[in-house]
Amino acid sequence: MDIRTAIAAERRELAAMLDGLPAGTWDAPTLCAGWRVREVAAHMSLGFRYSFPEVVWELVKARGSIHRMTDRCARRDAAVHSTDELSAALADNAHHPWKPPTLGIEAALGHDVIHGLDISVALGLGRRVPEDRLRILLEDVDAKTLTFFGADLDGVELRADDLDWSFGTGTPLTGAAQDLLLLAYGRKLPPGHLRGEQSDRFVAA
Description:
alpha+beta; single chain
């Protein structure tokens, strides 16, 4: 599947998901520690709303820390923009060429898919990311992915139970491919998503 087509489809579907949320749900916590739905949605559209010089200036103000920068921008933008504006930013920019700095177009798809799951999994919405999009991201999981996102998968082999994919070595940890992808991106999951002796390591408090 063409990655840009996949990105456009993912953004439209996520916009529709956000549009369908009850108003109070926007303040519910997500898998992104410290961020509610509204902060995650604001972060997802940052690349569409900030010019490159603006991003550089925000990074300077954050003393070079990308994590401080994105956290501050997400909180500020979540307070400024309405929920309608935040969901529309995804739909209106379905074909926007943004991708994370220094990374390839696959990273843009990963950005959308993972943050969409941060919301849908935390809320128990049951949304399933289409397999063709998942496979693009699963094939890119490597040691660099784990390091960048702070994922500790030592001693564990991830085994998807809904498609043919595994990663790592050690004690088997089984679950849906999209849930295992979240682990590779440093997330912890709600109870009941994983099976295996070490599943408790990856359950959110």
